[in-house]
């Protein structure tokens, strides 16, 4: 099963993906994690990515798609992928569909975590105070949230048209959100 966890930054996608990895043995393809790993590597690509992320901008489709394609064999061997933070644009969604189709696969389900923007801002401010993660500072987060609302939220009709979209209230506790996601995964499609 290939699953997209959809929602703005700090909606809990990473938390829920990690739970699905543990419980369902799926492979999490988190663009955020992959990009942070590129930065940590100190490579030229990592340096380019670091500057983009610190400004709160989105990394180019070309870079993100290459990172995803590199990890697909691992996900296929495990029986499925959780796409976390990808796709972000209609062009990425169409590229992902083509990439998977060429591999005899597809996206099975898109779970949208519905959250409140004001609560997200509070969540990120708290997370930044604890971790100091540069891409979590409130200023960068506001830019990322705006980019999500402008560029990524329009993907909802794309997946709704494919009858793959399920909405889950992402403002509940981790356990309540997890139970709702499990129900969506195990329910009829």
Question: Your description of this structure?
Answer:
The chain is α/β, with parallel strands linked by helices. The protein has one domain: P-loop containing nucleotide triphosphate hydrolases (Rossmann fold). About 60% of the residues lie in helices and about 10% in strands. The chain contains nine helices and five strands, in the order E-H-E-H-H-H-E-H-E-H-H-H-E-H. It has helices at about 15-25, 30-40, 45-55, 60-80, 90-100, 115-130, 140-150, 155-160, 175-185; strands at about 5, 25-30, 80-85, 110-115, 165-170. The protein has a five-stranded parallel sheet with strand order 2-3-1-4-5. The model has no long low-confidence stretch (mean pLDDT about 90).
